[in-house]
Fold:
Amino acid sequence: MSSRKRSNSIISINVNGVQVEGVNDIREAVFLHFQNHFKEGDELCPGMSNLPFKSFSVLEGVNLIKPFL
Structure:
């Protein structure tokens, strides 16, 4: 079991060409990576307000909720 634990542990990682070692330093590097990866950026996200969506008629809408046989 201890051999498996050693093989699953992270000894060091490379961050922008710098070798990072130690539990706390690796933890901080991983945290910062994901924080930067998932943070909301300043870039604009495309909106859907200008897209031409087809509207269903009432009859077409009723047909969408028919029971499946």
In short: Residues 1-38 form one domain. The first helix runs from residue 2 to 7. Residues 11 and 23 are 8 Å apart (CA to CA).
